[in-house]
Fold these 2 entries.
Entry 1:
Amino acid sequence: MDTSNMKLIQITDLHLATPGSLLHGLDPLDRLDRCLGDVVDRHPDADICVISGDLTDRGEPAAYQALKSRLQGFPCPVVLMLGNHDDRQNFRTAFPDHPVDGNGFVQTATSTDWGDVLCLDTLASGRREGDLCSDRLDWFRKKLENAGDRRILVFMHHPPFDIGIPRLDVIRLDQPEEFASIVSRLGQNIRHLFFGHVHRPVFGSWNRVPHSALPAINHQVPYDPVTPVMAYSNEPPAYAVVLADGETIVIHQEFFLHRDALPTAG
Ligand SMILES: [Fe+2]
């Protein structure tokens, strides 16, 4: 009987700015502090934490340094990913020890007792859309080819499909056909696909793979299937708690700023 299990934390879209400055009227660094504090208080037993891109809003060195300072002493390993708001060079300067693939992309494979966590780098410098070039796709394909019987979770910042919100669908992963082909041919070990970028809770399946996204830490994108112009909202932020136990995966979303208890009766 397979009894291996894992608790994984997903946090996404921090959009950190220069410490002390606001973004859309909110303080992203204060939001991150409260999120990380909540994780430490409630989930000190987490095995791994993935922060799935848009670590910063403008890729500023000071924003990466602020993130680095906040992660010192964090109780579990943290895997960092890039989104379209990030700057790969500034990230690598701030985090010189963070693993990268053989071509310098921030793509990582982390093995756990439960399975492997693959994190892709979909940043296309200077563009809002996502990209997976042939080098990045080759890395992903080889990981799947060599997976044996190990279970796999895949994280990527940009979703590889439309989610029904036009202003987000125009900046999804560009030309996802080759990625979809690799998943279809070699992805039998993939148990779940996680993404960021959309700043709201989204769940479903794609190519028979279950997927999910979660609210961002700072600002959210309201559901609007019509308006093409980007707009943001102050819907509640959240992080995800992924409980993997053998072939069962359960995902909770923790709305860490909204824990006020209600009266039990009346
Ligand atoms: Fe974002």
Entry 2:
Amino acid sequence: MAENDPFPGEDNTGHIWDGNLRELRNPPPRWWMLGLWASILFVVGYGILYPFWPTADGYTKGLLGWTQIEEYRRGVAQVEAVRAPFEERIRGLTAADILADPELTQYTVASSKVLFGDNCSACHGSGGQGNPGYPILADDYWQYGGTPAKLVESIGQGRQGSMPAHGEILSATEIDRLARFVTELKSGEPGAEDGWSLYRAKGCVACHGQEGDGVVVRLPNGDVITVGAPSFRNGIWRFAPGGYESARYTITHGVNQPGRPGSREAVMPDFGASGRLGEQEVKKLAVYVHQLGGGL
Ligand code: HEC
Ligand code: HEC
């Protein structure tokens, strides 16, 4: 081979392609070899100290006794040690007490995010922004009241608004007039007088309130009593898609009427009484939701 080598004096392997492309026998640079030996040593050291080689019935455990699950457990224990004193303080307080203390509020909101994500966001959206047919929790408007106590009640006991179907009680003209009336109010208009008289005459006022804002009784302490009938005085439609047709549908078929297949469904599951969440968790979620929307 060497005598045919067109590149005499060069330490090549004799493998030559395309006339001048050849394989040389140069040693790799020193830094590269050092790096190679250092990494081999590292692997050997690592293999001795940490879990490494598979064996017939498991794996070598390593001299340090480190395990991933142990590290995770230590992490969880650390988090719990930070949380425990807060959880203890919250235990004796009401949701309103917690909201009066900025530090406890901050802790409660931060530690309830996952709770909300796991239990509530499927229906109410991950930021409480609502979904078609499910109410928004991140605004200032509440069908059942937004005080801390009312929120605890909504979450702990569940809610299920009820409105009778008016399809057989009212004439088609009356239903049409009321649906238009509701749509007018929703779009910010004051509502024509004939609309208001029909609204009062047909009993809508009993649940949707004197002002059409869903409030049945206002208490001196600022709290309200409602039956969960939505306000017509804001632009938020409770049922999708909203608008005149949607209103006509609700008036005709009602809400949560057993034995009436067309009726709207509106069920907020009870989380406390059913045992799905503990009292402490319900309280924390009330604080969380209150911070999303700001209460009354
Ligand atoms: C299966 C769907 C569903 C889930 C899950 C759910 N909700 Fe609801 N929630 C509803 C519906 C529907 C309503 C409205 C009930 C009505 O209109 O009568 C509602 C109403 C509410 C209200 C009252 C709103 C108002 O305007 O007064 C609050 C507060 C609330 N939910 C909080 C929560 C929290 C907190 C969770 C998680 C623990 C949760 N919800 C989980 C469906 C759900
Ligand atoms: C017994 C109480 C009650 C009476 C009476 C009642 N409603 Fe309702 N109405 C409700 C409740 C409760 C809801 C909402 C249910 C829910 O969200 O759970 C509702 C919902 C509605 C909606 C849906 C609004 C939206 O945003 O999608 C319309 C429209 C409506 N009512 C119109 C009327 C009209 C018009 C009358 C009079 C003919 C009337 N209601 C009588 C309780 C009542």
